[in-house]
């Protein structure tokens, strides 16, 4: 299958003066659809991925593998504000760079809304990395076995069974019939709360061909006998997922089959699901699990049968997954609700941010600079203005190191009349020199100077995004947009 290109690539910018102003008719769903198209698979440079993870900072780590699967997954943000998961393998995992790229490229051709689609890879020197869509709502393992607020509802468990069956059948149709080590950690939930199957499992775990890293009790019998994985092995693993969904526990397949054969199937059921399901539906799912877990591979059903068996069991298809799971729905701000600066910060367009800060100048400092100009006859104030001018010239010329030095000297001198703009400009300069924590501190200080200044909130959003704190960054964008709207309303009332 081919890859999708973003629908927004050829759209005119809302800031383009050649585009007539007319009412927006774009819905939130259309915006999400435009932004979430999966880009074409590509090979990344290592420096690119190092940059978007803040030098593979520990603060960006999402998960870490153990001895049998030594790898670390980081959260990063690409250009265009796209969040990604970056899996960094150990140096020994893929010694052959060509084999790694070929395998990744093959998997990267898949595009399906039930998969965590692979966006790219990197093979430079000893580095082997995979880049995939970012899933913000944890794994099936977390929601089944380590839940905090509520157990995973029955209807959501059926949806997991259905969506993963769809994913496996799609892979089968696309001749990607082997999935390595399917388990509850390989199923993740996207921003809508929909379950997706990680594409990392479509690639071999390591150079030695070992495809199963979990407890041997969960390993398909033929793999134990021959060391080989076949398409029917994937169906067996799907059966272990069904047992997980039914029981909410780690129950070895053989033990589960013993319970089923002893007609104690309902004893498998998770006690927290009491009253949520009909016995007939549970029995059908138990029966399907039994078929999947047959000792002989030839006795197991195919992926089409899996989907046709679980799809009819869902009774609440119209209810969104995030509602069923009790997850908060992220608020979407239409780009037109943000000022040009807000839009530039939301898409991490640092060039545009710099231009806007230059164009805006010091006009939001509410006359503080004019107050100083009346005192130019004093030597200290004249010196202060000279340093400010040097800082502004360095900032304009993108000499951010010197801009930081000048603005830092200025901040020390401006004890009585602090400037929000100086803090905003130094904040941006810190960002451009990879001093993100200092950038956030200065953006917060700018807010102290002018509590409802949208620029201060947008600069905080920029720094928080760089630190990988997406929820907080979105909150700051929301606050900045709200104060922008408030200012516009006040200006309209003054004109009247």
TrEMBL record:
Stretches assigned to coiled coil: none
State the species of origin: Brassica napus (Rape)
Q: Where is this region: Disordered?
A: 1-32
One GO location term (cellular component) = plasma membrane
- Family statement drawn from the similarity comment of this UniProt entry: Belongs to the protein kinase superfamily. Ser/Thr protein kinase family.
| Ranges for domain Protein kinase | 59-310
- What is this protein's function per UniProt? Serine/threonine kinase that acts as positive regulator of brassinosteroid (BR) signaling downstream of the receptor kinase BRI1.
Record's keyword annotation contains Transferase:
yes
Molecular functions (GO terms): ATP binding; protein serine kinase activity; protein serine/threonine kinase activity
Subunit structure and binding partners: Interacts with BRI1.
Write out the entry's keywords from A to Z.
Answer: ATP-binding, Brassinosteroid signaling pathway, Cell membrane, Kinase, Lipoprotein, Membrane, Myristate, Nucleotide-binding, Serine/threonine-protein kinase, Transferase
Q: Which gene encodes it?
A: BnaC01g10520D
Its catalytic activity?
Answer: L-seryl-[protein] + ATP = O-phospho-L-seryl-[protein] + ADP + H(+); L-threonyl-[protein] + ATP = O-phospho-L-threonyl-[protein] + ADP + H(+)
What PROSITE patterns has UniProt attached to this entry?
PROTEIN_KINASE_DOM (PS50011)
Return the protein name. Serine/threonine-protein kinase BSK
EC class = transferase
EC number assigned by the record = 2.7.11.1
């Amino acid at each position: 299958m081919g890859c999708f290109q973003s629908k927004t690539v050829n759209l005119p910018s809302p800031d383009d003066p050649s585009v007539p102003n007319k009412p927006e008719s774009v819905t939130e769903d259309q915006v999400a659809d435009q932004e979430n198209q999966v880009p074409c698979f590509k090979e990344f440079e290592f420096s690119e991925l190092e940059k978007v993870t803040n030098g593979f900072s520990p603060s960006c780590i999402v998960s870490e593998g153990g001895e049998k699967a030594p790898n670390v997954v980081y959260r990063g943000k690409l250009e265009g504000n796209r969040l990604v998961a970056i899996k960094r393998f150990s140096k020994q995992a893929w010694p052959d760079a060509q084999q790694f790229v070929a395998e990744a490229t093959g998997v990267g051709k898949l595009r399906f809304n039930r998969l965590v689609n692979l966006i790219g890879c990197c093979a430079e020197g000893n580095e082997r990395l995979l880049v995939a869509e970012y899933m913000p709502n944890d794994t099936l393992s977390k929601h089944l076995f380590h839940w905090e607020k509520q157990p995973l509802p029955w209807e959501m468990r059926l949806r997991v069974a259905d969506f993963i069956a769809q994913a496996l059948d799609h892979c089968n149709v696309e001749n990607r019939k082997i999935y390595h080590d399917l388990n509850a950690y390989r199923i993740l939930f996207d921003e809508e709360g929909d379950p997706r199957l990680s594409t990392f499992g479509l690639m071999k775990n390591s150079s030695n061909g070992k495809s199963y890293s979990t407890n041997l009790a969960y390993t398909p019998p033929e793999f134990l006998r021959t060391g080989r994985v076949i398409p029917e092995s994937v169906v067996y693993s799907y059966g272990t997922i069904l047992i997980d969904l039914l029981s909410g526990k780690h129950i070895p397949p053989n033990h589960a089959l013993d319970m089923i054969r002893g007609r104690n199937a309902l004893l498998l059921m998770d006690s927290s699901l009491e009253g949520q399901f009909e016995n007939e539906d549970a029995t059908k799912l138990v029966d399907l699990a039994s078929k999947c877990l047959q000792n002989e591979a030839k006795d197991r059903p195919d992926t089409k049968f899996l989907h046709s068996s679980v799809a009819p069991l869902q009774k609440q298809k119209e209810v969104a997954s995030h509602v069923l799971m009790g997850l908060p729905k992220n608020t979407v701000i239409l780009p037109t609700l943000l000022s040009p600066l807000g839009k530039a910060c939301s898409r991490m367009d640092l060039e545009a941010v710099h231009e806007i800060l230059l164009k805006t100048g010091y006009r939001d400092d509410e006359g503080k600079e004019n107050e100083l100009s009346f005192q130019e006859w004093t030597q200290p104030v004249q010196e202060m203005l000279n340093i400010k001018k040097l800082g502004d010239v360095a900032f304009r010329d993108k000499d951010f190191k010197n801009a930081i030095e000048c603005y830092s000297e200025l901040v020390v001198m401006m004890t009585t009349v602090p400037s929000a703009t100086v803090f905003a400009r130094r904040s941006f300069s810190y960002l451009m020199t990879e001093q993100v924590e200092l950038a956030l501190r200065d953006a917060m200080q700018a807010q102290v100077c002018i509590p409802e200044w949208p620029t201060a909130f947008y600069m905080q959003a920029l720094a928080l995004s760089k630190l990988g704190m997406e929820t907080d960054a979105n909150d700051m964008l929301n606050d900045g947009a709200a104060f922008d709207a408030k200012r516009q309303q006040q200006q309209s009332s003054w004109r009247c």
